[in-house]
Design goal:
There is one protein chain. The protein is an all-alpha fold and 189 residues long. The chain is built from 8 helices and no strands. The longest helix is centred in the C-terminal third of the chain and has 29 residues, at 158-186.
Length: 189
């Protein structure tokens, strides 16, 4: 019951983040290029700072989740462990330290997590689209970071390099997990 309540709470938190981010992105959709879009959505208002911090802090549960799974007798796979240990560093680098264009990835990430937590809360019909939304958020995030690296004009790059490295690692490990699940399913295990 507690995990269903937590999942419902987390889904509503993701939806709240989406409600802030979507209008910001839609408002800037008339920009001429992808890099202009990324620059246009950067907003240094106190409200934006608050939502960046909320987004960052929302990822600390993933860090704590490792301990909770181990305490409950579960096991930690490579993808789960690596992703959950590194996510707070990713969000610090890209939403707190260097927030330029943070909303573009965050909207896809929050959408994926809203669906995932809805699934965990009992909406099992959402399970089939989770691999699609999982890949979509990673691909968009990688594209955003590569665009910043490509069109960098002498600014700080380490947050973008860290982000593209972590997101690419998540994609490889996610693919490995899906392949392993399909292999087990194909043998009737």
């Amino acid at each position: 019951m507690n995990s269903i309540l937590y999942s419902a709470f987390s889904a509503s938190m993701c939806i709240s983040i989406l409600q802030y981010i979507l209008p910001v992105i839609v408002h800037t959709q008339n920009t001429q290029s992808f890099i202009n879009l990324l620059s246009a959505v950067t907003n240094s208002t106190p409200q934006d700072g608050m939502w960046r911090l909320i987004f960052h802090l929302s990822k600390f549960y993933e860090y704590l989740d490792i301990v909770l799974v181990l305490w409950s007798g579960g096991s930690i796979g490579l993808h789960f462990g690596f992703h959950h240990l590194t996510t707070p560093y990713l969000t610090y680098a890209r939403t707190v330290y260097k927030p330029d264009g943070w909303q573009v990835f965050a909207v896809f990430n929050a959408f994926h997590h809203a669906i995932m937590y809805g699934y965990f809360a009992g909406a099992t019909s959402l399970g089939g689209i989770l691999p699609i939304t999982g890949y979509l958020q990673l691909i968009v995030g990688i594209m955003v970071e590569l665009a910043y690296i490509q069109w960098n004009e002498g600014g700080i790059l380490w947050p973008n390099v860290l982000s593209v490295t972590l997101l690419s690692s998540y994609a490889v490990l996610f693919t490995r997990d899906l392949r392993d699940r399909n292999d087990k399913g194909g043998r009737g295990e």
